[in-house]
Specification:
Serine Threonine Protein Phosphatase 5, Tetratricopeptide repeat; three-stranded mixed beta sheet; seven-stranded mixed beta sheet; alpha/beta; 383 residues
Length: 383
């Protein structure tokens, strides 16, 4: 049975064969470089089983589960009795469900490198990546990022924009839609404003803008969590399917410390998030990143007096229009409990109905544009 070499070789790396160099890069943890080199050997090297197992192992560490699966399935076509490929493919397929995969009896590399069941402090999810401006901020802050985006054109643009970060393994772009069950669905592209791309045609056609549908592959958000890990911060902005991400958290092995979701049905979100254990909330305007709070924060009073500046900036970073802004403890205002945030939101709804001017809306019906931020108390787990 072909295996991937684990031990270092005294021969200098430059003098080894391409397969030996790939094995060494894998052993050193240089997974992206190893994957690239293994990939160049597919169909060209005599030991195709060894190359494919090495490539599958690198894909596993990079979180490319589709690539890993393809490698293992190809190995089994070449060698149907290969126990390493069979055991790890079985573990991978078990991991696509809600249960934690059991350790393969032959080779442990799947379970060694699979995502932790616990929240990962250095990981952020950008669900609804769009043009990648939020992803850019999260990378700037030093986080690893999993960016989920249904629009294949936007994914292609982001892959070029963040080529280095993808190559370094700091960013994984997942070109999937989020749905209630796996499958292929119609997705509506707003041709003039891709922020409004949606499974809901009404959203994509706002203001009478031209739009068209494409079919895209979809997965559940539970599948995303199981395959990419639990983030420290979860940003959700997927125009109509946001609630599916919140619902999926009920079955997750752990929960993000912080999350934000584009506000739809506040009562529904508050019930769901409170049941999950989230206890602090803020409604943050997406125009000036001001919180709905009574009494208003000083920054809102300054804006109303015409003396505010820098509300779309944080520590030298300027947030372009349409981005979600800062998160967690970097947001303005204090954390409100469930009852206070609901009362405060109702207060501003009444002001809007009375057509009283505030910084939180303008004329359009959709202009009361808020993100709901939530936090939970995180206890340190024993090692």
């Amino acid at each position: 049975m072909s295996t991937v070499h684990e031990k270092s070789d005294p021969v200098p790396l430059a003098l080894r064969s391409p397969k030996e160099r790939a094995d060494a890069l894998l052993a050193e943890g240089r997974f992206r470089e190893a994957a690239n080199l293994y990939g160049s050997l597919v169909g060209r090297h005599a030991d195709q089983v060894g190359v494919l197992l090495g490539l599958g192992r690198a894909f596993c560490r990079l979180g490319d589960w589709a690539g890993m699966q393809a490698c293992l399935e190809t190995v089994l076509k070449i060698d149907p009795s290969n126990e390493c490929a069979s055991a790890n493919l079985n573990a991978l397929q078990q991991g696509s469900g809600t249960e934690t995969p059991k350790a393969p009896p032959i080779d442990t590399w799947f379970n060694l490198f699979r995502p932790s069941d616990r929240m990962q402090d250095d990981l952020v999810y950008d669900v609804g990546m769009n043009n990648g401006d939020d992803t850019a901020y999260y990378l700037h802050r030093g986080f690893r990022v999993v960016a989920v985006e249904a629009d294949p054109d936007l994914c292609q643009v982001a892959a070029a924009r963040f080529e280095k970060e993808v190559r370094d393994g700091r960013l994984q772009i997942v070109n999937l839609g989020i749905a209630a069950k796996p499958g292929v669905l119609d997705f509506w592209i707003c041709e003039k404003n891709r922020v409004w791309n949606s499974f809901d045609r009404k959203i994509a056609s706002r203001d009478g803008l031209p739009h068209h549908s494409i079919q895209i592959p979809c997965q559940t958000f539970g599948w995303i969590l199981a395959n990419y890990g639990i983030p420290h911060f979860l940003k959700i902005d997927i125009e109509g399917h946001d609630y599916l991400c919140i619902e999926a958290l009920k079955m997750a092995s752990d929960l993000p410390a912080y999350l934000s979701v584009e506000l739809g049905n506040l009562d529904r979100f508050l019930v769901q998030l409170t049941e999950l254990g989230y206890s602090g909330f803020k409604c943050i305007s997406q125009y000036h990143f001001l919180p709905l709070q009574l009494p208003p924060v000083a920054e809102q009073l300054a804006l109303e007096a015409g003396t505010a500046s820098g509300l779309r900036q944080f520590n030298g970073w300027s947030f372009p229009e349409g981005t979600s802004g800062a998160f967690g403890e970097d947001t303005l205002g204090r954390w409100l409990d469930r009852e206070e945030v609901a009362r405060t939101h109702s207060h501003y709804l009444r002001l809007r109905e009375q057509q009283i001017q505030t910084p939180f809306w303008f004329g359009a019906g959709y202009s009361f544009w808020l993100d709901l931020h939530a936090k939970r108390e995180v206890r340190k787990h024993n090692a």
